[in-house]
Amino acid sequence: MYVVIVYDVNVKRVNNVKKFLRQHLHWVQNSVFEGEVTKAEFERIKATLRELIDDEEDSVVIYKLRSMPAREVMGVEKNPMGDVI
Amino acid sequence: MYVVIVYDVNVKRVNNVKKFLRQHLHWVQNSVFEGEVTKAEFERIKATLRELIDDEEDSVVIYKLRSMPAREVMGVEKNPMGDVI
């Protein structure tokens, strides 16, 4: 499964979220990570995110795709996908 | 075509980008929009974004999908998709 994760997390917690996701996914740009994950990895990622965020204030949206989607980049590509493929 | 657009744009220009995308797409959360677009709309959106951003400083990533992807939301859903479907 391929996931794109975008988050809107209070500055008090955002560094923990970023640090955690960086261990599992490719950082795309500010508040966006993506990558291929197994079902087990996906469940672990969600379980940890649940611990890191405040349910009543923060927001995480996870797009679940079959494979890496087509993309177009405009302006600066902050962290080119080529580096990990 | 279904697009998810994430941007990382300098605060000097970000309101213009947000205001423009809001006219065409569904606001998901901070710096993320998505929606169904025709090929013509997609080209117009890209042309305007090119004018609004600074190529050397800002970044826009557009994921191009066939249809609205599966998603999971954790915490607050800032702007539920149900409102537009």
From TrEMBL, chains A, B:
One BP term from GO: maintenance of CRISPR repeat elements
Cofactor(s) annotated in UniProt: Mg(2+)
Coiled coil (residue ranges): none
Enzyme Commission number(s) of this protein: 3.1.-.-
Pfam families, per the entry: CRISPR_Cas2 (PF09827)
Domain of life: Archaea
Enzyme class of the recorded protein, top EC level: hydrolase
Residues that coordinate or bind Mg(2+): D8
InterPro entries hit by this protein: CRISPR_associated_Cas2 (IPR021127), Virulence_VapD/CRISPR_Cas2 (IPR019199)
Gene Ontology terms for molecular function: hydrolase activity; metal ion binding; RNA endonuclease activity
Alphabetical keyword list: Antiviral defense, Endonuclease, Hydrolase, Magnesium, Metal-binding, Nuclease
Family under the similarity heading: Belongs to the CRISPR-associated endoribonuclease Cas2 protein family.
Function statement: CRISPR (clustered regularly interspaced short palindromic repeat), is an adaptive immune system that provides protection against mobile genetic elements (viruses, transposable elements and conjugative plasmids). CRISPR clusters contain sequences complementary to antecedent mobile elements and target invading nucleic acids. CRISPR clusters are transcribed and processed into CRISPR RNA (crRNA). Functions as a ssRNA-specific endoribonuclease. Involved in the integration of spacer DNA into the CRISPR cassette.
Subunit annotation: Homodimer, forms a heterotetramer with a Cas1 homodimer.
Protein's name according to its UniProt entry: CRISPR-associated endoribonuclease Cas2
Species of origin: Thermococcus indicus
Gene this protein is translated from: cas2
